[in-house]
Each structure stands twice: as structure tokens, then as C-alpha cells.
Design the sequence.
């Protein structure tokens, strides 16, 4: 890997130069407490020490709402509406979010690529940035706190600038075109990088092993946590829509008043919504709030075999942005037996049956 | 398309804002080759409320004995009935109060005599079967286009069963409830407005009504509001504004306050 140093005084010039590579997006403060990635005009508005953006960077590639194709019913024709995407730069992506994009790639690029996602992914330049964890971060437990790839450049903070890791040929070209802005990495810089990384890893709230979590979740379907916590849930779907790896969408056909033409649109969906599990015949394979609540926990903690990690990257958004104050981390730690020692948990049946098929109070009325 | 589709737009007690909203849509011109407007006073002087139609749109709440008869007649004459707007679907803000009719009447009209027999405002579906609903105060043009377009091709429009929160997120708004602690009704209110109010930092008042299918979690949201210091009465009043006829509302909110020392 190639390493260069970007001195602090060159940071804003560098950001200005990035605009030559495409529309620049970076984290800015959008309200009193929230940050989000926005298009950057004035580079001095860029936040280098933001906690987490309310919307994950997936929004640049998997659009919250987009037109897929236009159709004509009379002519029985359709025409895909794939945007002519101009190159764009996303500056300041945290390691967890880079992993989030890598997870989306395993779904939307491998095997059967999603054209709409692919065309944007090819044009997006990713510049990562180092960060210090806050109380909600647990990427260390997900092994997503340090990105090996998935970025063109990655900036690690030094006392007097940035140690830059170059990740792709595009990254090389950006550095080469602006070579006068960069310096060589010194021994002091390496020490500073090592020190930053040491402090960062110490700053996480939890240092523990979660490797058996996905199995414990499946085994603890009868745990009282599920009832207590799903009871609080508003089913607003914010946990899904702020998640960097949630990828479900809903489609709708909109017909114009000529009764002939129209278009198909897709938008982000949430598994906390009733219609997510609704199928033909008005059957619903997740008919209760509890079933939908459990689904997210199981889905997020499932194993992504291509990357060897879970689908949750530990960014903390679903906890930090939950209006009902439900803590994903706490609930997982309850299941792990790390919050309170309640072992064995209550078992109601004579012969304990374990697994999703045996869960109580999950099926709802009328089934 | 063969025969022209006959449509009617009928008004009960309301501000006529719903039909005004749709009457001003340029897209309506596209209807001319395929649709015959049998009744829509705002568009057609020679309207008749008693002719058979394929699709009947009804705005307003049922607020007089005469309107009870009118909606029954519309139902008899229509293949499909669509309730339009907060008044027709939820009874509207005029359903908000639980004071007796006589008291309300006196406050507004005093001793004046009128030609109709008043009733407490109710949603249309309390009297007739409603096949589909277009929500909002006023409703969204997009919903009207989608409904009519879908019905025109002989298909059936989907209902909206997810909350405003989704649209806040699709648009990347900050969360009013979380950040400002304001009693935003977004989590229980039907989406489709593109989260217009929260986009301006204003808490949702629920004008599109609570999400149906028993997925409006009044209880969970009441718990959140309670933690923010709202009383049971304050919560009920806010949630009732556009949901006065929701059978679950009171019971669910009260449950949160049960066994709580006040």
C-alpha cells in the first residue's frame, strides 16, 4: 500500500481540488444534534470530527426513492430509466460505513448486479476518514473498525495533518495530480498513527467477544427481552432507514391519467412495517410487531459469508436515532448474558423447544 | 379503452378544499378522452348527484341527516366509493371534541334556525361501505393521480400502511421528536405527505390519520411522550385531533398510564 502525508494546512486546498473529480459530498451539521452527508460548496463547512450521519452513505448508491422504468400498457413496452451518473466524491466516510457499502456490494453487485446501484458505485469516489468512537459505537465488536479496502483514499488523523492510505488506482491518480499538496510520511507520523489507533481502540465502550451472538439469538427466542423491547417499539422503521446495510425496497407502479403510460418507482422499505411480510392472499409471514422486531435482530446479526462478518457494522445509528430509546446494543448484550446474569432464562414448556418456529406470541390473531 | 368511465365528486360538510385541490390539477385534462364527469359541481354546472357512476369520490364528513341519505344514495349508484380527505376518512377536526351536539350548536349558531338536521360529524364509512381512501387535509395530488390512474386501468391501488417517519428518512430530515423532544405524531401517522411539516422542523399533527391495520402504536408513542413530560390528557388531545373516531386510541394510551403514580 502507498502512504503519503497531507499536512493540516493543505486540507482545505485538498478538499477544493477534490471537486475537480466530481461533485463533492461530505458530512456537515444539518441541525443542532445531527450530521448528514451533503453536497459541499464551502469546504470550511466540512465536519472532520462528526459522530455519525443520520443517513448512511448508501443513499448515494441505493437511492431512497428512484424511478426504475417507464411503461406503456397499450403498447406493452417498458424503458429502463438508468441515470447518466456523473462522477462524484464522498469525503469523510467512517470505516464502519465503508464496510456497510462492502456489504451492499455483496448483495447488489455480485452475481445478479442491480443496474441502478452499479452505475453509481462505479462513479463514486470514496475518501475515508478516521474517527474516535462515542458511547453508541461498537464497530470494534463487529470487526469493522478498520477498513482494508473499499476506499480510494483513507485519511488517518495526525496532530499536524493526515496519514493517507491509498486504496485504488483512482486514489493514486488523485494523489499524483495533487502531489505538491502531499509530503512523505515520517517516523513521527508513524508513531502518531500508532498512538491514535491505540487510543481509538481503548475508547470503545465494550471490549468483549460477540462471536456466538447469532447463535444465542436463535436459541433465546423465548427470552423476555423480546416482549419487553418490542412493546416499546414504534415500528417507525428509522432503525432500518438509517442502517448502512439495510437494503430492502418496495416498488409501486404509478399509472398516468391517460390510462396508458406510467412508471415504476422503488423506495427504501423497512421490515418493521406490516406490508414487508405481506404476501398474496393477505397472508403475512411476520404478522406481529414482535415478529418484525425479532426479524431485524436476526437479519442484522446473520453471517455474511462473503465477507465473514455480520450484516451489522456497529455504527450505532439504530440506537442513537431510535425515537423510542431502544438500545440495540443493550438488547444484544442481554441475550449474550453480559447485561445481567439471568441464566437459565425462564422456560415455560416441559420439553424446551428452541428456535424461531417455536416462539410464543408471534403468530398474531386470525392465523 | 372502451366505454368512458363515469366519475362523480360529491361534497358533504367540508371546506371544499379537497375537490379544489384536484380540480386545479392540469393532469385532469388527460382524462377527457376516457372519462365522463357525471357530478363535480366545481367543474361541471350540469352535475347530478343521482346518476350512476363507476367511481364516486366523497369529501367531507357526514354531519346532517340529509347527508346520511345522500351517502347511501351515492353508494347505491356507484361501483366504487372513494372517501377523500381527513373529513371523509376520519371525520375531520370537527370530530375532535367530545362535547354534546347541542352545546356545539349553540356556540356557533345561537338560536338561529337552519334548513337541515344537524348531527355530530362522522367519517363516511360509519354509514356506507368505503372501498378506498385518499387521506390528508388537503389530500396529496400524487395520491389522487395514483388512485384514479390505477382504477382507470382496472387495477386496485395499494393502501398506505406505513408512517410519516419513513418519508422523513427518505428526505434526510432531522428527527423533530428525537432532537427537539416535540410531540411529533409521525410514528403513528400515515405517510404520503412526503413529511412536509417535519421537513420544516414542525412536529406532525397527524392530519392524514393514524396508520390502519392496527399498526398505529398509540401506546408506545404515548410512553415516549410521557417520558418527555406530557400528561395523559395532553397526549390524548393531540392524538385525537385527527383520530377522534379511532376505536383503539383511548384504550392504548390509557394502558401506558395504568398503575402509574400521577
Sequence:
Amino acid at each position: 500500500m502507498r502512504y503519503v502525508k497531507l499536512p493540516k494546512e493543505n486540507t482545505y486546498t485538498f478538499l477544493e481540488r477534490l471537486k475537480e473529480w466530481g461533485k463533492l459530498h461530505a458530512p456537515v451539521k444539518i441541525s443542532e444534534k445531527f450530521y448528514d452527508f451533503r453536497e459541499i460548496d464551502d469546504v470550511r463547512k466540512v465536519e472532520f470530527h462528526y459522530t455519525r450521519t443520520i443517513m448512511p452513505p448508501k443513499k448515494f448508491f441505493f437511492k431512497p426513492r428512484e424511478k426504475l422504468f417507464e411503461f406503456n400498457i397499450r403498447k406493452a413496452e417498458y424503458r429502463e430509466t438508468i441515470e447518466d451518473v456523473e462522477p462524484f466524491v464522498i469525503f469523510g466516510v467512517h470505516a464502519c460505513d465503508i464496510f456497510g457499502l462492502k456489504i451492499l456490494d455483496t448483495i447488489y453487485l455480485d452475481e445478479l448486479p442491480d443496474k441502478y446501484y452499479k452505475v453509481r458505485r462505479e462513479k463514486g469516489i470514496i475518501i475515508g476518514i478516521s474517527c474516535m468512537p462515542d458511547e453508541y459505537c461498537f464497530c470494534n465488536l463487529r470487526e469493522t473498525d478498520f477498513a482494508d479496502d473499499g476506499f480510494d483514499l483513507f485519511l488517518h488523523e495526525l496532530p499536524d495533518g493526515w496519514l493517507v492510505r491509498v486504496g485504488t488506482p483512482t486514489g493514486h491518480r488523485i494523489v499524483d495530480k495533487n502531489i505538491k499538496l502531499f509530503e512523505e510520511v515520517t517516523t513521527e507520523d508513524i508513531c502518531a498513527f500508532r498512538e491514535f489507533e491505540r487510543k481509538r481502540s481503548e475508547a470503545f465502550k465494550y471490549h468483549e467477544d460477540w462471536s456466538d451472538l447469532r447463535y444465542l439469538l436463535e436459541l433465546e427466542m423465548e427470552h423476555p427481552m423480546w416482549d419487553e423491547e418490542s412493546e416499546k417499539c414504534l415500528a417507525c422503521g428509522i432503525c432500518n432507514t438509517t442502517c448502512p446495510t439495510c437494503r430492502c425496497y418496495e416498488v409501486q407502479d404509478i399509472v398516468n391519467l391517460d390510462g396508458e403510460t406510467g412508471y415504476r418507482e422503488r423506495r427504501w422499505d423497512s421490515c418493521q412495517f406490516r406490508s414487508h411480510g405481506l404476501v398474496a392472499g393477505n397472508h403475512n409471514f411476520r404478522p406481529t410487531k414482535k415478529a418484525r422486531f425479532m426479524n431485524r435482530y436476526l437479519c442484522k446479526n446473520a453471517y455474511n459469508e462473503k465477507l465473514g462478518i455480520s450484516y451489522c457494522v456497529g455504527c450505532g445509528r439504530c440506537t442513537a436515532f431510535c425515537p423510542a430509546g431502544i438500545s440495540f446494543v443493550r438488547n444484544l448484550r442481554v441475550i449474550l448474558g453480559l447485561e445481567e446474569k439471568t441464566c437459565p432464562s425462564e422456560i415455560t414448556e416441559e420439553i424446551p423447544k428452541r428456535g424461531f418456529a417455536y416462539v410464543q406470541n408471534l403468530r398474531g390473531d386470525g392465523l | 379503452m372502451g366505454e368512458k368511465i363515469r366519475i362523480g365528486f360529491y361534497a358533504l360538510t367540508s371546506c371544499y378544499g379537497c375537490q379544489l385541490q384536484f380540480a386545479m390539477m392540469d393532469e385532469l385534462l388527460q382524462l377527457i378522452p376516457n372519462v365522463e364527469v357525471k357530478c363535480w359541481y366545481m367543474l361541471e354546472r350540469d352535475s347530478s348527484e343521482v346518476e350512476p357512476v363507476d367511481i364516486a369520490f366523497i369529501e367531507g364528513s357526514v354531519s346532517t341527516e340529509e347527508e346520511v341519505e345522500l351517502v347511501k344514495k351515492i353508494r347505491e349508484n356507484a361501483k366504487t366509493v372513494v372517501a377523500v380527505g381527513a373529513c371523509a376518512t376520519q371525520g375531520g377536526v370537527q370530530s375532535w371534541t367530545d362535547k354534546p351536539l347541542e352545546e356545539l350548536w349553540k356556540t356557533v349558531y345561537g338560536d338561529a334556525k337552519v334548513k337541515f338536521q344537524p348531527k355530530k360529524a362522522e367519517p363516511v364509512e360509519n354509514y356506507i361501505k368505503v372501498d378506498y381512501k385518499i387521506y390528508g387535509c388537503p389530500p396529496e395530488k400524487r395520491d389522487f393521480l395514483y388512485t384514479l390512474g390505477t382504477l382507470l386501468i382496472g387495477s386496485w391501488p395499494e393502501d398506505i400502511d406505513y408512517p410519516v417517519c419513513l418519508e422523513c428518512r427518505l428526505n434526510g430530515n432531522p428527527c423533530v421528536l428525537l432532537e427537539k423532544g416535540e410531540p411529533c405524531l409521525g410514528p403513528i401517522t400515515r405517510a404520503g405527505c412526503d413529511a412536509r411539516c417535519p421537513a420544516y422542523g414542525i412536529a406532525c399533527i397527524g392530519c392524514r390519520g393514524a396508520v390502519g391495520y392496527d399498526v398505529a402504536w398509540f401506546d408506545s408513542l404515548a410512553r415516549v411522550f410521557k417520558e418527555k413530560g406530557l400528561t395523559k390528557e395532553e397526549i390524548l388531545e393531540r392524538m385525537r385531533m385527527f383520530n377522534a373516531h379511532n376505536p383503539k386510541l383511548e384504550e392504548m394510551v390509557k394502558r401506558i398510564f395504568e398503575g402509574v403514580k400521577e
